[in-house]
Amino acid sequence: METFVLALAGGAILYIVGELLHIGRRQALHGSVMLGLLVGFFLAYGTELYIQVAAGGELGEEGIVYASPKQPPSVANGKRIFERNCAPCHGMAGDGYEPEARKRRIHPRDFTDRQWAVGETDAD
């Protein structure tokens, strides 16, 4: 769904850029339109980079921004967090079949089903 919505937004942006270029040619302002598009692109890109860096992220491989953990990754710490926050509903096995889960209107996600995580990276 996310990809579809982003594709719709991309199509709308392409339509607007096309209209701007058409108006620029018709009114002999082609250079001004191109300059405005270029400045707008770099402002948007720069704003995105600023927000990611200000939020404590850093650029990793392939331009992906990763948030730096406050402490080094730890299996023991992750287990503690999972037991406290996730296991009551998802269960220690992560399959979503715990007594607490049966009380809920929506069944908790089954983390053992790898189909839901297809395409996700460790950072996700």
The main pleated sheet reads as: 2 strands, antiparallel
Which value, in Å, is the CA radius of gyration?
23 Å
Shape category: elongated
Give the helix proportion (percent range).
55-70%
Uncertain residue segments: none
Spatial gap, N to C terminus: 17 Å
The structure class reads mainly alpha
Instruction: Note the run of SSEs as H and E.
Output: HHEEHHH
Instruction: Give, in spatial order, the strands making up the sheet with the most strands.
Output: 1-2
Number of domains: 2
Number of helices: 5
Mean pLDDT: 78
Task: Give me the count of strands.
Answer: 2
β-sheet strand percentage: under 5%
Which helices and strands appear, and what pairs or packs with what?
Elements: H1 2-26, H2 30-54, E1 57-59, E2 65-67, H3 75-85, H4 87-90, H5 99-102
Antiparallel strand pairs: 1-2
Helix pairs in contact: 1-2
